[in-house]
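User: Can you help me understand a structure? I only have the sequence.
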Amino acid sequence: NIKKVLKEFKLFLADDIFVAHGVKFDFDFINESFKKYNIGELYNQKICTIELIKKIFKFDRYGLKYLKKYLNIKGLAHHRAYDDAL
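Assistant: Let's start by predicting it. Here is the structure, written out as tokens:
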């Protein structure tokens, strides 16, 4: 069930840094889910990979679909956790 998965994720994350592409959306979504199921809140530090990539490249767009194109990355589906992480 969702509450069990959220509890396991919170234990997995522990006090590690929360990294995501557009971190605010993911962090807020998970944090609201924790609150909804009375699991507490996230206080982890966050890193946004969009902000990191903007420091390296000047592109028109920074969505994963466009980054794959600009960086010539083939064979990965965007918006799939494992492929996004790769």
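Now, to help you interpret it: The first strand starts at residue 18 and ends at 20. The mean pLDDT is 90. Let me know which part you'd like to focus on.
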